[in-house]
Amino acid sequence: MIYEVEGDILKSGAAAIAHGVAPDDDFHSGLALALREQWPAMYKDFRHFCHTHSPHIGQAWSWGGAGGTRIVALLTQEPAKDKNDHPGKAKLSAVNHALRELRRMVETEGLASIALPRVATGVGGLDWTEVKPLIEHHLGDLPIPVYLYTVFHPGVQATEPTV
Predict the structure, then answer these.
(1) Does the reported pTM lie above 0.85?
(2) 28, 50, 73, 91: which has the fewest Cβ within 10 Å?
(3) In terms of Cα–Cα distance, which of 106, 122, 14 is closest to 68?
(4) Which of 116, 35, 9 is nearest to 46 (CA)?
C-alpha cells in the first residue's frame, strides 16, 4: 500500500530508501548529496559498482550498510557525457524499468517497507503527473508499506503508517 507522507526521508523508518540517480553520478545535489554525506561508504561502493559493471539507465543497485541501512539507487537519468559534465535528464522508460527492478528487489529480499521521494522529478526533470502513475503501477499492490515522500520538510520525521 502506498502512503503519501511529508517530512525528511532521511528520518524514515522504512527498511530501504530508494532514489533516482545516473550511472556514475557524483551525488552532488539533492537527496543524493544528503545520502552521500550520511553514508559515505554507500557513495564509494556505488562509484566502484559503476566503474566495474558499467550499468545502464533503467537498472537498480542496492547497498546495505551497518545497522541494517538499505539504499537503492534507481538509475533513471542519462549519464554525464564526460567526466566534467552533469548527468542528463531522466527518462520515463528508465523510471519504468528501474521501478520494475525495485519491485523485484522488494519481493526477492523480503523488504518490510520502502521509502521513495518524487523520483526523477527534481534534477531528473520529469513531470510528477507522469512519474506517480508508474510508482502506483509497480509498487501500489505490494503487501508492504510504500512511503512516498511528496513534500520535503528538512529534519521532520513523517508519520509512517504501518500495515
Answers:
(1) yes
(2) 28
(3) 14
(4) 35
Show the domains of the chain with their CATH numbers.
Answer: 2-152 (3.40.220.10)
Q: Which cell goes with 24?
A: 556514475
Residue given cell 559534465 in the structure block: 85
Residue 131: how many other CB atoms lie within 10 Å: 22
130-138 LR contacts (CB < 8 Å, sep 24+): 130/92, 131/92, 131/95, 134/92, 134/95, 134/96, 134/99, 135/2, 135/99, 136/2, 137/99, 138/96, 138/99, 138/100, 138/102, 138/103
Residue 76 · residue 20 · CB < 8 Å? yes
